[in-house]
Amino acid sequence: MGQHSLNLSVRFLLEIAALVSIGMWGYAQSGTWMKFLLAIILPFLFAIIWGVFAVKDDPSRSGKTVVPTPGIIRLFIEIGLFGFAAWTMFNMEFRVLAWIFTGVLLIHYLVSYDRVWWLIRTKR
Fold it and tell me: Is 107 helix (H, G, I), strand (E, B) or coil?
């Protein structure tokens, strides 16, 4: 189920929503020119961490990685980044969106139980 195209599409949309939310949160953190910098840098950091630290041969990705990461670490990275995105939504008082995001995220990981189990077992 974790490799199903619909589930991968949902994960992609969750990633985009996280990037947007983190960028908006960064923008809201300052009243000066720094808001533009934070709105760009924070999502950029999210994308770098997301793309660089991956499990080699992850079937839900290209299978390639810059920094080979154990599966459990990758799972914690995903949960941490998505959790931060949900927190930014709550912090900006987009509570309904935050709950929807969190709910869809939980359903995504439940449906992706095979990938989650694979990540937990993968040591490389």
Answer: helix
The widest CA-to-CA distance across the chain, in whole angstroms, is 46
Q: How many residues does the chain have?
A: 124
Integer CA distances (angstroms), 116 to 17, 21, 46, 86, in order: 21, 24, 20, 20
59 pLDDT more than 60: yes
pLDDT band at 121 (very low <50, low <70, confident <90, very high): very high
Q: Where are the domains of the chain?
A: 5-121
Q: What was the pLDDT predicted at 58?
A: 81
Helices of type H across 1-124: 5-28, 34-52, 71-91, 95-111, 113-121
Neighbouring-strand partners of residue 68: 54
